[in-house]
Design goal:
By secondary structure, the protein is an alpha+beta fold. The chain is 38% helix and 18% strand. It is globular.
Length: 154
């Protein structure tokens, strides 16, 4: 059965997530995490895709992104392929990094309540996964965009 086509249109907002192949890690340390974030930034710069929120876990990631152009597929293909190549070269590995197709769920635009709930869901992912120890503040989690949201307006 063929895959259903992605829904793409200018100004679309998505919750995108992907897991490691066989739920294995997609990062092996902080160097990989920084490489992931740099690659994500490069993708945004190349495509104009706006990253509204992210959470990078050990074996998966969540993104809330907006596509001013209808280019989700091109942007995500470049991102996942480029990160996989860099990860494999750096770590002396070969083959797939991500398990299957990434999920891309179209969401209401920024003004909707669901958008706010989604951003909270993404930022709370490390808490639910036990990556933040009891008594630590949310700001202790480096690998989400939460710190950017908590900065006072300039």
């Amino acid at each position: 059965m063929p895959r259903s086509p992605r829904i793409e249109f200018p100004g679309a907002m998505y919750h995108v997530l992907a897991r490691g192949d066989r739920r294995e890690p997609i990062v092996l340390g902080d160097d990989d995490r920084w490489m992931f974030l740099r690659t994500l930034g490069e993708m945004a710069g190349r495509t104009g895709i706006r990253v509204h929120a992210y959470a990078l876990m050990d074996n998966h990631y969540h993104l809330v992104i907006e596509t001013p152009k209808a280019n989700l597929v091109a942007g995500m293909a470049w991102f996942q392929t480029t990160y996989t190549r860099r990860f494999n070269v750096k770590n002396g590995l070969w083959g797939h990094l991500f398990g299957g197709r990434y999920k891309a769920i179209v969401v209401q635009h920024q003004e909707g309540d669901y958008y706010k709930q989604l951003v909270d869901y993404v930022h709370l992912n490390p808490v639910r996964a036990g990556m933040i120890a009891e008594g630590e503040g949310f700001d202790s989690m480096e690998w989400t965009s939460l710190r950017e949201y908590r900065k006072p307006p300039s």
